[in-house]
Each structure stands twice: as C-alpha cells, then as structure tokens.
Design brief:
By secondary structure, the protein is α+β, with helices and mostly antiparallel strands. The chain has a domain at 7-105. The protein has six helices and four strands, in the order H-E-H-H-E-E-E-H-H-H. Helix 2 (30-47) packs antiparallel against helix 3. The two termini are 35 Å apart.
C-alpha cells in the first residue's frame, strides 16, 4: 500500500495534534453542527496540553471543506502551530476524535486509503474468491 501521502505529516517534528471529524453537509444546518464539533475539538486538544497555536491551526481548518457535498469527514494533522496535512475522507468517523501525542495517529486515514477500500469490490472491497476461501477454511471444533 502506498503511504507517501503521509510524508508531510512525518516531515514535521512532533508532538502532533490529530483530529478526525464528521463534516458532512447532508444534515439540517450543517454549519451549526460543525461549529459545535470545532468547539469540542478545541476543548479536547487544549485539555491534552496542546499549545494554543496548534489548537488554533487545527480548529481554523476544521469544517473548511464547504465545497464537498454530502456525507464525508476530515482528517487534520498539525505540529508546533503549523498544519502538516488536511484531507477530506469519504467516510466520516463514527465518533469525532482529537489526540495530542508524540506520534501522529495516522491509522484511520491510512485505512481510508487502503486499496481494498477504494476498489468497490465485494464485502469490504475484498474479491469474492477471498470470501470463498475464508468460508472454506477448516474450523477448529474445539473453538465452537
């Protein structure tokens, strides 16, 4: 799997503020909902000891994807008061998340870029033969 899209995140020294939030526009009054999410994002990052400049950098860009219609989310990464990466993601997170840590939390974004997620094939994007192989695998009777 190609992960070079994450290079801008790792090009900056940590610690990192990472945020995943639902910025969907398919709800009544999306701007109010996103404003509330932005406020919670600020509080969560500040509560974890994130510096004010980094909190502001993340919060300022949260919900800035107004040109993207429908259901979607945003992944935001910042360090030392500067944005490292902002990406719109097709599947919004089940729950908004904000983390300030020594290492960036890139896994949710990496999963959205996974080839099996983008292929549109089968269950979870897996080819049908993979599902068939899994069903044919012998089961251990001791585990039933």
């Amino acid at each position: 799997m190609e992960l070079t899209f994450l290079d801008p995140v790792y090009a900056r020294p940590g610690p990192y503020a990472c945020a995943y939030l639902d910025t969907s526009r398919d709800i009544p009054d999306p701007e109010s909902a996103i404003s509330l999410r932005r406020r919670h994002l600020r509080q969560a990052l500040a509560g974890q000891g994130t510096d004010d400049a980094t909190v502001a950098a993340v919060a300022d860009v949260a919900g800035s994807d107004r040109e993207v219609a429908g259901r979607h989310g945003q992944a935001i990464f910042a360090s030392q008061g500067h944005l490292a990466l902002v990406e719109e993601v097709p599947d919004p997170p089940a729950h908004d998340a904000a983390r300030f840590s020594a290492l960036p939390d890139v896994m949710p974004l990496a999963v959205q870029h996974a080839p099996w997620r983008r292929s549109g094939r089968g269950e979870l994007g897996r080819p049908a033969r993979a599902r068939a192989w899994r069903r044919s695998w012998p089961r251990c009777s001791a585990l039933r």
